[in-house]
Amino acid sequence: MRGYTKARFIRRYKRFLADVCLQNGTEITVHCPNTGSMRNCLELGALVWLSCSANQARKYRYTLEFLQTSRGHFIGLNASDANKLVEDGIKSGVIKELSGYSHLRSEVRYGFENSRIDFLLSKEGKPDCYVEVKSVTLLENPVTRGDGYFPDSISTRAQKHLRELSQLAHAGVRAVLVFCVQHSGIQRVHSADHIDPTYAEYLRVAITSGVEVLAYKTRFGLSHPKIWKAIPFE
């Protein structure tokens, strides 16, 4: 991928740190921008791509961005990229279900639990639409089936977001949950009942309340990844 530094993955630790080996053999510590478990993502010796900050004051100038697995799958490791990808997908019209709005605001306060919605879409004469985005990178075995799951660890924060979305939908407000799939091997998305059964139950309640669930897959290429196409949520 253009504009990134190649390295080999060694280990992740303390949640936000990882050690990698650059192509010249130098081992460095980099920032790991993902709060999840990254289950089934990290392989010793896997090829990774790093971004480099121009901020000289940063302790760790490099950030872990992408990884290629031994099966050739590409994974976007930066969870915050999901919001950027979905925003681009909305503005470009790729996410057709969220087209037709003239204004997009991010990180808007809402709800009863002091939350911030990822995107609030609006247009004069049209009801508002609240959009919550989640990054999906967990591909469970057997990987040839293409079954992706969210979350990859117990997430009380994600549970809270579902409660908030359910409240909105129950009140007649349009609420949409978008699973942004940052793993090229995932062909469909499921709720991870086997990891966070509470989240799975909240999601079932949310759907019953009227929350819409979308899943969109990322395409990885020579330049920056882009939202590509819708895939099933089952």
Automatic annotation (TrEMBL):
Q: Which Pfam families match?
A: SfsA (PF03749), SfsA_N (PF17746)
Instruction: Give the residues annotated as coiled coil.
Output: none
Q: Show where the Sugar fermentation stimulation protein C-terminal domain sits.
A: 82-220
Question: What are the protein's GO molecular function terms?
Answer: DNA binding
Q: Which Gene3D superfamilies match?
A: 2.40.50.580, 3.40.1350.60
Which InterPro entries has this protein been placed in? Answer: SfsA, SfsA_C, SfsA_N
Family recorded in the similarity comment: Belongs to the SfsA family.
- What NCBIfam families does the database record attribute to this sequence? sfsA
Q: Which protein is depicted?
A: Sugar fermentation stimulation protein homolog
